[in-house]
């Protein structure tokens, strides 16, 4: 391949510097009586100038020498010899040679500067595009792979990621060797070395920013989890106090020998104890589910998930509570989202359970996708306004939804509109895939 390229370049140089000057003088030769030697020299200089601009200085210098020789051979008496009788022609040819060489030198410098400017513009464009694409990626591995692919294609030199120094190795940051660096398959020239150093510095800055962003997100999630735990304790305090008080009151009444109770009252109190025990059991199930959510939140698995399948699985988790519940879904058949499958199923299930428990048996669920987030909006009518006290909990189902949302860099909102008697629960989470 390289030999064929060199052969093509050699033939091109021979054509421009040897054949074409000869063609020029042969074309003019039948009309040589109409031109002076100086005219011929000017016509030859036109070709020398064109070659100097289009090619390199070596080819242009060779073209100048061949042009002088051809002019002497065909247009200076005696013809078809290199003998010069008139000293005037010597001066003409000497000036032609000097002018041709100067033109080739200046054109060569110009071409060199043009190539340098083009290379600089190409490198600047590469760095701009690379910075833009790297900042669009959230994964360190994806950033490294994009960098390696881009640099290999631009430099035409294979490169690979390494953590320890080797031959032809460039650290991302020499003060922080643990970041590793890039190893190149062969030595780079000065221009390539400068570009590679700048690109590696750029990659280091992007990766450092990504790590800081991940640490900030982790700290934020941890803070939100702590807040959720505090909310959970408040919710448990309220949600467990009421059934426990009922059970203690009913059981103490049944155990008091001084109180004479009819069979109907005994049956009623036993039913109260049973119902409140069921409520306590549900609360403990919620606590276990919340514990599971907190465990899964330590290692979220982002997956591509069909939204309708998620909703269907969430309904299956609360099959008993949703037996007579009517749910209308507004989502495209092919709608997808990204997130942890188990966590999102648990959150959707709790939203549906709350709507069934406090609503009239029907609800509408809508899936909305925006540029940077997903939303599940659940609306349902409710019949009565529930009075709240200062220490009333928000319900463990809402706490679970809030924890799931925070783990996905999102939030959970629950609003009650007393005028329209509509409850709206919105689960919002990011589509940045962690």
TrEMBL record:
Catalytic activities: ATP + protein L-histidine = ADP + protein N-phospho-L-histidine
One protein family per Pfam: DUF4118
Record keywords, A-Z: ATP-binding, Kinase, Membrane, Nucleotide-binding, Phosphoprotein, Transferase, Transmembrane, Transmembrane helix, Two-component regulatory system
Protein's UniProt name: histidine kinase
Compartments in which it is found: Membrane
Domain Histidine kinase stretches: 235-414
Molecular functions (GO terms): ATP binding; phosphorelay sensor kinase activity
Lineage, highest ranks first: Bacteria, Pseudomonadati, Pseudomonadota, Gammaproteobacteria, Alteromonadales
PANTHER family membership: SENSOR PROTEIN KDPD
Gene Ontology cellular component terms for the protein in this record: plasma membrane
